Amino acid sequence: SSAQKRMYxxxxxDRRTISYNMPSVLLMEGELDISRLRDSLNQLVNRHxxxxxxxxxxxxxxxxxxxxxAEVDLHVFEAKEDEADQKxxxxxxxxxxNDAPLIxxxxxxxxxxxxxxxxxxxxxxxxxxxxxIFVKELALLYKGEQLPEPTxxxxxxxxxxxxxxxxxxxxxxxxxxxxxxxxxxxxLDLPLDYARPPVQSFKGDTIRFRxxxxxxxxxxxxxxxxxxxxxxxxxxVFHVFLSKISGQRDIVIGSVTxxxxxxxxxxxxxxxxxxxxxxxEAKEQQTFAELLELAKQTNLSALEHQxxx
Length: 309
Description:
CATH superfamily of the largest domain: Chloramphenicol acetyltransferase-like domain
EC number: 3.1.2.-
Largest sheet: 4 strands, mixed
Low-confidence stretches: none
Protein name: Surfactin
GO biological process, one term: secondary metabolite biosynthetic process
Keywords: Coiled coil, Hydrolase
Radius of gyration: 22 Å
GO molecular function: hydrolase activity; phosphopantetheine binding
């Protein structure tokens, strides 16, 4: 698929990167049947073709290679509570895209009835929605439930995406994005502490904070009055923030979309996400209400053309 091709090319630029690993840690409390958990993991991986897919090049183009049967080794380690973070860091390692399955699992035994299940998948075979599907089906299989066989697999989506009819539809989407991104593209001039490195390092941090209840109520009121979503409001607010610190009004902000526009792929693990380049130019003396309306229209238009790779 186009999303997988994007991931493959990025991986070729740096095969030792872990930037596109998708690690998860699940706390499991109570009696745990490790043998059943291991069997459930392997049932799940063999149930979905996308989870036993590797990638190689044929005639200069990346292609999928689906192995008939895969086995995930569930390594079990003893660890104290204060050792868990270090064990998790050691668990996250680069993947070789030629070697399926592109998924790893390990179990940390903290206490007799307290375990941490570590999972890691490469982004080329999964996305955020896939992670939820994986955990849900793993729990059902562990409980002994019989799951219906999938009628479609990710390769069917990839074939559909490359059909002539779809390629014709892409021309309309392409025209939209060529128009939006025409002219000189702005480069955000942030007040940096140090120069940007020649090669993107992906080093950064996350700041988490809670808003007060009054702010939350005010935002909910704004959403109802303007017919907008929280994403649209945050887009407008972020645009104002970036404009204030950069002195620029024409700004492009990247926003990820789930990319699951077809009902048939809602419960299918795979890489569907796409990044939309939301370009918005604020005017002088523009009110926030006017900017929010612009953000609303920008997001709606981008979503109409989200299938363009």
